[in-house]
Amino acid sequence: EDCLGLILDLLDPVTVATLEKTSRHMYSLIQTHQYWRRALKKLVLKHPYLGHKIDTETEEDTGKQGCKAVYKNLAKELNLFWKKNERFKPLTMRNDQYFCEKDERQKVVSMKVTGNFFITVLGPRTRSDLAVFSIRVFDRNTKKKINEISNLIDKPEYLVFSPKYNILVAKSHETCLSMPDTLNIWTLEFQSDSFLRAYHLKSSGLGARCTALVLKEDIFFGSLKKDCVVMCPTRYNNKSVVRFLALTRASFCPDSFPAGAWKTDSAGDRFVKTNNGLIYEGHKVAVEEVGRVHIPHLVQLGVADFTDKWAILFSEAPKELPDRNIHLIVLDMANMSIRHILKAYEPRIAVYGASLHQQEPDVAVAVGKDGYLKVFDLDSGRELTNQRVPKPMARTNTTIIDFFGTTRFMLGSITDIHVFDLQFPLYPSPEAKLDRIERRREHIRTVSIYGEVWDMVEERALQLAPPPGVHALDPLMQLQQNLAALNQVNQAIEANIVRPELPEEADRVEQLMVEFRAVQQRIHDLNQEMEARISVAIEAVAADLSHIFVLTNTGDIMTFDFCESSPIDESIGED
Fold it and tell me: What is the side-by-side strand order in the sheet with 282-295?
């Protein structure tokens, strides 16, 4: 029975609720082990902003109806507010939150959110401002800034962090072209020396960039439990490779690390040189490569996710390759090898979001630039279904959360965020496994920043103004001039494409057709760019169990708070 208690702790509430229904004996065992009380505590630990909802109820209601009912009611209430309904609309706030603080010459260029922390990346507000970046970390309980990492020359990308182990990891393309990509590792919370380590990824070639980072806490590699592991797809020695790096907080000194030759820098700090960069003395972070998988094609590796059973990532082949289909690469974590390579999307379609579904452990869900949401069975290696959804604008406009066992997708278009639920049966019928998975895909709500856009237009124009001393040529005018020139080229090429009389002319016509297509693509790209330059659009979307946070390209942060949903005024409806 003690073993069962330990197993229960590893299961999620949806599975346990199903398990309770199997027999009376199982029900009483789950009650004896106080699973639901622990589940509530875990929930508050992970999502402290829900604490005020649970505390009062737990004390009064636990005796009457038990922790399970409290848990269930909370999930129901939150879901009611999230779903489309006529009675409630979320409380909307713009820029008046504690995490919006910035200097006059800065704007928010990126953000991340977790239960305890809100992280913003600040960059130059206009093209005249100094191109330096800083990362600010805010505590969501105290609503205060607890850490700032400033004067970063390079924009920190793919920010991932571990609140439990106080680690913040960002990738940077070094400013010098000959330098490799680097993982910069800091402490999440403030301490006097918050920079822990720079770990060189040794990725090779200018286009060879690590394109995604995923961090998971307390994950098993075989029988070894690792504090936190970063999945890092990159290009190494001119091959595509996925590396799994385990991060552990450790103290370095000549006694603990005698193998290295210790030196002293100009500031008097002692360090040891390794193949992957310098390690300084003190309580820093140890990086151990716990797994590596080579991908056979010469491809760039995109959006990724992993669990202790599977890892998935998408290949984005460079345009020189003949086969440019976007493939889903499924890795088997047990033996660190490729299990399947599946054709997922058409060429030139980027994958904007991917998630390994929580309730159905062998299922992956992905959304592409073309607006197709696809479901893949990882075990058998095939696509189960695909459905159209509103097209997301960019990678950062897609966020995926686990909402009490349901995979919840948020897809941002220009001014709207569409919310989708993907629900799988916990134990699907054999017929469903053979044919198509029984599942519901539900468009549950749309929230929009449209009402606020007009206030931001002037700010956008200011940000796009040229630096002092540069001729004030309207960027839109520049684009229109480019477009007019390209249209002329287009017409000239079109006029030259005639039916070839001689065999040797066929090659020339083919070449002109290639150029014609290239120019048309460029015209299309310029049109897209013109739209993007002048309009206010969503830059990034983040979410937790009761909020959606939206960052616009003007640096404004909009918060949609579902817990504070207000009833819609009925008098408006009567008019």
Answer: 214-221, 224-236, 239-252, 282-295
